[in-house]
């Protein structure tokens, strides 16, 4: 029985201050929408695929060589983001970025037991992201011959600019949903905090719980209109009595 009463009390607290919860939910959702649409810079992504495979006129499959190519991908992931490659890319495309800034927007990923790895670049402009990722791939293919004295890099697929590119971030719908949930939690938390700090007595049960004594009677709360109406009736009654006395 206590559990059911406590649940009723919790729902009663929420119902009593539901407008505050709704206000927090609306404000946080609206704030998330403003930040997502107007303050955050959209990020676009472009990718290329690079094959690591030694050029050989012998058509027999060499598993040892394949294993070596796969292990080389980890080394190539470091080289492709090094200053030796990125400085040339910045110079060729005349980018207003440092090597460190450009490196933060580059990611290299590969699947297990595969000689193919993907090179991905993020940028605030979709066309520039395509130019950068293609230039990095070409520069890496050219420079790796001198760096490691090998010729085993081939570009499988270059990045192309789509007709209507969509940004990968931010995600306004997700951000708004998170903002609404966060606002709801903050509103509920504030409501319970205010209720905890409120030491005033509101109901007869509060008085009984605080004093430990039964309530014998209570005065009903009246609205201003009822008070005015009651006072008017009382005045009319007094006037009637006075008129009868005079008679």
From TrEMBL:
Which family is this protein grouped under? Belongs to the CpsC/CapA family.
Keyword Phosphoprotein appears in the UniProt entry? no
Upper lineage ranks? Bacteria, Bacillati, Bacillota, Bacilli, Bacillales
Source domain of life: Bacteria
**Name recorded for this polypeptide:** Capsular polysaccharide biosynthesis protein
What keywords would UniProt list here? Cell membrane, Membrane, Transmembrane, Transmembrane helix
Q: Please name the Pfam families in this protein's record.
A: GNVR, Wzz
Domain annotation Tyrosine-protein kinase G-rich: ranges: 139-193
UniProt membrane topology term: Multi-pass membrane protein
Q: Which residues cross the membrane?
A: 20-40, 174-194
Q: Where in the cell is it found?
A: Cell membrane
Stretches assigned to the Polysaccharide chain length determinant N-terminal domain: 3-93
């Amino acid at each position: 029985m206590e559990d059911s009463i406590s649940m009723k009390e919790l729902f009663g607290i929420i119902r009593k201050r539901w407008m505050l919860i709704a206000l927090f939910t609306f404000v946080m959702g609206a704030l998330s929408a403003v930040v997502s649409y107007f303050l955050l810079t959209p990020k676009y992504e472009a990718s290329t695929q690079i094959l690591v495979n030694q050029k050989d006129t012998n058509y027999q499959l060499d598993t040892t060589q394949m294993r070596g190519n796969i292990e080389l991908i980890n080394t190539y992931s470091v080289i492709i983001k090094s200053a030796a490659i990125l400085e040339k890319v910045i110079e060729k495309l005349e980018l207003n970025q440092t090597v460190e800034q450009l490196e933060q927007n580059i990611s290299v990923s590969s699947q297990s037991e595969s000689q193919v790895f993907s090179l991905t670049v993020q940028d605030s402009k979709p066309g520039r992201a395509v130019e950068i990722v293609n230039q990095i791939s070409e520069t890496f293919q050219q420079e790796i011959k001198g760096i490691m004295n090998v010729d085993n890099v081939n570009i499988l697929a270059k990045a192309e600019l789509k007709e209507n590119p969509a940004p990968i971030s931010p995600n306004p719908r997700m951000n708004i949903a998170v903002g609404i949930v966060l606002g709801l939690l903050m509103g509920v938390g504030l409501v319970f905090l205010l209720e905890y700090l409120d030491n005033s007595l509101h109901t007869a049960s509060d008085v009984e719980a605080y004093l430990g004594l039964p309530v014998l009677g209570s005065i009903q709360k009246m609205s201003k209109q009822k008070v005015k109406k009651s006072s008017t009736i009382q005045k009319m009654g007094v006037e009637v009595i006075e008129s009868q006395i005079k008679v």
